[in-house]
Predict the 3D structure of the following.
Amino acid sequence: MQKAYITALYSIMQKDRGVLSLLSDSGTDYDLMMARDFPKQCFNFGISEQNKVAAASGMAKMGKTPFVYTTGSFLAYRAYEFIRDDICFQRRNVKLMGMGMGMGMGAWSTLGASHHTTEDIAALRALPNLTLISAATPLELARCVWAAYETDGPVYVRLGMSGEEELYDETYEFKLGKPVTLSEGHDIAIFSTGTITAETVHAAERLRVDGVSVKVLNVHTLKPLDKDDLIAAVNGLSKVFTVEEHNINGGLGGAIAEVLAGAGIGIPLMRIGLNDSFAKGYGTTAEVRKLNGLDREGIYAQIKQNLN
Amino acid sequence: MASPKELRKHIFLAAYSGGVGHLASAFSAVEILSALYLGGVMKYKSSQPEWEGRDYFILSKGHGSLALYAVLCDAGFFPKAEMYRFCQPSGVLGGEPHTLDTPGVEASTGSLGHGLSIGVGIALALKLDSKSNRVYALIGDGECQEGSIWEAVMSGAAFKLNNFTAIVDNNKIQKMDYVKNIVGDYSIANVFEAFGWQVKTVDGHNIDELKYALNGEWDEDKPRCVVAETVKGKGVSLMENNPAWHWRMPSRKELKVFISELDITEEELERCKKRT
């Protein structure tokens, strides 16, 4: 997904010389290539996320479009007040790119909760003027980066680091704010967001083998949420599940519950994610997901046991 | 052009109208802002706040908003009547400056340790476009306790922002006490110098000295820092150098001192309906 990000940003920076890439000592070889090709558009601010976010506000004021890229936990948590006061409150056209969503920092998850973004949706969803996107696949991320560029105003994109499974083909059309129906079904719906959506899709396949008709929706845009689409999606179903690599409080599940309850829809809803806890364990991202019940088997088992 | 004493009078009357205000913080920065806006240091067009040729000013110590409003008003960015709607539902001047509310306010501040970084971004963007506009940011000495200030200071030197001037309102007092009693005695000028800035220290209540320093000779490739030695609450004897005045308005008895030392008439006071 990181390659998809850099490839999309490379095209945008080539097309528009006012687009800047701001790093916090957070780059890779791809970024060295960018700095070589666009030396006047790439800046490494060093390990100073607060300063970088506020400086991006100043740059956007001057007509630039900064893409602020760093580890999601340091961006969303450490620089939160700067995102709030300097970007959202002042409505600056800054694109915030939080890398490494959920428990994964690429293929590995060895650093523990300090490097996880498992509460960021809850925190960022509360910010006025902010568009919040959580990309499920590399192709979707590329589309998100373009959508962020084409949106006038503050945008935050959660992106995975590498090796994510692709669920789409090149014909995929990304529409900001519009959830994507990955499969139709008439018993239950599963709403999912971010890279864990691939695990959700596999869990749904197993449920289908068991005879459950499952509708799967990828809610890539968490803010603003398309209420009409979500309400229509649960019509006639018996239960709704939400799956996210995030605390069950305040994230996707909370957002869906707000929409459904607000519309007076009395359908049972179960939120699957981290149960108000930090993720436990170390290993590959796949192993840590499994330890926390958020791999395909874990998601399948939780839904299977709670169908009624 | 209003004198510093007249500016302080406007500031006090605005605060009196609103019933609130960080008077002491504003009073310590009056000459600094006056030199910048009314003393010819900064280029701007008050009839065209977004004029591309302007220099940029960020009030990082947002509590000093009343001093900024007083000079912006005197420079013609908005009518004087607006000053007397300070912190009131009918007005656009809040306790902290907000760029979307007030003409001439370049950035919203209030939480400390943000404005210097915003200035870094503006200065860097100007350099990218090879523009000669300058950027000024006013920070407080208490504000320098925020770690983000030093992130911005490092960036300013690393990006060689010679179009950027940080001014430190070095009034030596913060909300609860003298700065040195909280974080020890240290030289702000030395720290800025250690980080690669060129520093000049001036009397922050002497407009000529401020102008001479701001406009004078500087190294070609370094960001600039002017440490303005100031007195918190300058201009009213009761408030000067007294930590008690961070956030309060005078009692009836104290009001007499303000009226007398700022040359406020009974009519002027009467026109500003006190809300509290």
In short: The first strand of chain B starts at residue 56 and ends at 59. The beta strands of chain B are 56-59, 135-140, 164-170, 198-203, 224-229.
